[in-house]
Amino acid sequence: MFAVLIPILAGLDIVLKYAVNSMDKKELPRVFAKKIEIDKFYNDGFVFGKLKKKKKIVKYVPVFITSILVGLLSVLLPKKGNTIRKLSLSLIIAGSLSNIFDRFTRGYVVDYIRIKTKGADKVIFNLGDIFILLGSLIMPFGVKKKTKEILPDIVSEEE
Fold first, then answer.
1. Known catalytic residue: 44?
2. Which one of the listed residues 102, 111, 121, 153 is annotated catalytic?
3. How many independent structural domains does the chain possess?
4. Is 39 a catalytic residue?
5. 44: Cβ contacts below 8 Å, ≥ 6 apart
6. What residue ranges are annotated as transmembrane (predicted)?
């Protein structure tokens, strides 16, 4: 299931980016529910345009990190359980692959969603970014070690 989820989610974001990028500037922005704005923005850096002058770092660091996550997921997939970990890794990988695809094909990531609320209206993102955020937020819920199991390890190291 998770191996199928990744290309579906990444593909969905890629299709949405293509659709938004194909729109004429006169058609944009489009506003939904008075708070969600769809427009096209080009980000050639990391989050908030960070390191945009460091093209190789911006292009290859996500590939490296995503490769590690794919490796972790490939270890987890054959095992029973770990559903939350598998889901969180799948979401992060899907979002990352979508943005990596943009970086390699366009040289920048197409961001197209803005929430029009005070304080957040400067933040522009895409569906892939939402997948990465959701995966990161649910990841801690997949951690199996309990505090009681961790504390004896810490105490024995100090002795």
1. no
2. 111
3. 1
4. no
5. 52, 55, 58, 107, 108, 109
6. 57-77, 123-143
